[in-house]
TrEMBL record:
Chain ranges passing through the membrane: 225-245
A Pfam family it matches: YscJ_FliF
Localization per Swiss-Prot or TrEMBL: Cell outer membrane
InterPro entries linked to this entry: AMP-bd_C_sf, FliF_N_dom, T3SS_SctJ, YscJ/FliF
Membrane topology term: Lipid-anchor
Superkingdom field: Bacteria
Positions of the Flagellar M-ring N-terminal domain: 24-192
Full protein name: Type III secretion protein
A single Gene Ontology CC term: cell outer membrane
Family stated for the protein in its record: Belongs to the YscJ lipoprotein family.
One BP term from GO: protein secretion
Organism of origin: Archangium violaceum Cb vi76
Entry annotated with the keyword Signal: yes
PANTHER family, alphabetized: FLAGELLAR M-RING PROTEIN, YOP PROTEINS TRANSLOCATION LIPOPROTEIN J
Length: 264
């Protein structure tokens, strides 16, 4: 089968344009997808949010240009996106096999910590929250005054505000966690607050969007776009040349007539 020049040009242009974007994240909730899209857009990365087909729940994926994939991945790492989701009490209640008393206790403590972690993760400005809860076992032989008290450890990674402040105070975290765990006193809650340090590339001029023929793209993508456009122009010119050359070549010979000219 012989391809026409225009069809060949179209295939070559399609081949050049294939693979310009890659999937950065998939199987995302709409909230995670929106947060990632906004973060990347603010940092000059031309991200695309797309719905994923199939499945019972609505899920999304984020695509970025290949040239910006490394910077995008670094941004997600720095801002702990997508947000971690811990297994809470609902997952604990769905257990299949009957666990031992020790296993059941360990799963309950983990589920309780996951439930509190997920609640803290919903606070605006909190990027990642993890809670570990310790509740000593009750012993009938232990005297009430010697009974060990429950404790908790909380790690929160947050996005600093305008004055580098935390979105939530340490005392508020202690009060919130102590309310969620039975017999837990606020003083027994240890809280570690750490700010997120954005990568240096976030404020670099190469991450700003530029207008090229009415399309907005990063500076790193401009050179790739120009190269692709140049290749496409050369392919189109070559296709036109292939189409016109047979006509130019056949037009040089004089048309032959069926009757000979009479002799003088």
């Amino acid at each position: 089968m012989t391809l026409r020049p225009y069809a060949l040009a179209a295939l070559l242009v399609l081949a050049v344009g294939t693979g310009c974007t890659i999937d950065l994240q998939h199987d995302l909730t709409e909230q995670d997808a929106n947060e990632i899209y906004v973060l990347l857009s603010k940092n000059g990365i031309a991200a695309t949010k797309m719905k994923e087909e199939g499945g019972n729940e609505l899920r999304f994926r984020i695509q970025v240009p290949k040239a910006d994939a490394a910077q995008a991945a670094e941004l997600l790492r720095a801002y702990s996106l997508p947000r971690p989701m811990e297994k809470g009490l609902n997952h604990f209640a769905k257990g299949g096999m009957v666990p031992t008393a020790t296993e059941e206790r360990a799963m309950l403590l983990k589920a309780l910590g996951g439930e509190v972690s997920n609640s803290l993760n919903q606070i605006d400005g909190v990027l990642e929250a993890r809670v570990i809860v310790m509740i000593p076992e009750n012993n009938d032989l232990t005297q009430p005054e010697n009974k060990p008290e429950p404790s908790a450890s909380v790690f929160i990674k947050y996005r600093p505000g305008l004055k580098n402040e935390s979105p939530i105070k340490r005392e508020d975290v202690q009060q919130f966690v102590s309310t969620a765990v039975p017999e837990l006193k606020p003083a027994a809650v240890t809280v570690l607050l750490t700010p997120a340090l954005p990568p240096d590339a976030e404020v670099g001029p190469e991450s700003r969007l530029q207008d090229v023929f009415g399309m907005r793209m990063t500076a790193s993508s401009v050179s790739q776009f120009r190269m692709m456009a140049g290749v496409a122009v050369m392919v189109i010119l070559a296709a036109i040349g292939l189409a016109v050359w047979p006509m130019l070549r056949g037009g040089g010979a004089a048309p032959a007539t069926g009757r000979p000219r009479p002799k003088q």
